[in-house]
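Q: Give me a backbone?
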Amino acid sequence: GITLIKSAGSIVAGNTAARNENYGIYLEGSNGNTIEKNNASSNYDKGLFISNSSKNVITGNQANVNTWDGMRFWSSHKNVIKGNYTLRNAFGMVIPGVVFQNRRKSRTIL
């Protein structure tokens, strides 16, 4: 998969992150990055996992048929989440206090 740890100002775009043991795309302690037009599908845990990361732009990604979550945000704030698709995951999009099931377009700023 693709991992950013303590990264800022990076662009992750147009990649396929599939069939990974854990996550397709993982951000930890990373702020101000752009994650766009990626396919994070068929992973054995989560498609996208954004942890302790803020002020990122996550747009136009697909996270389908992952074992657990299509996209999970943990202790992450002020991210722009727009135009992403999740389909046939255990949970579509998980944001603390809110769970979106199946295919959703999200236009949320957290």
User: Anything to note?
Assistant: The chain is about 0% helix and 45% strand. The longest strand covers residues 23-28. The chain has a mean pLDDT of 90. Residues 55 and 79 are 5 Å apart (CA to CA).
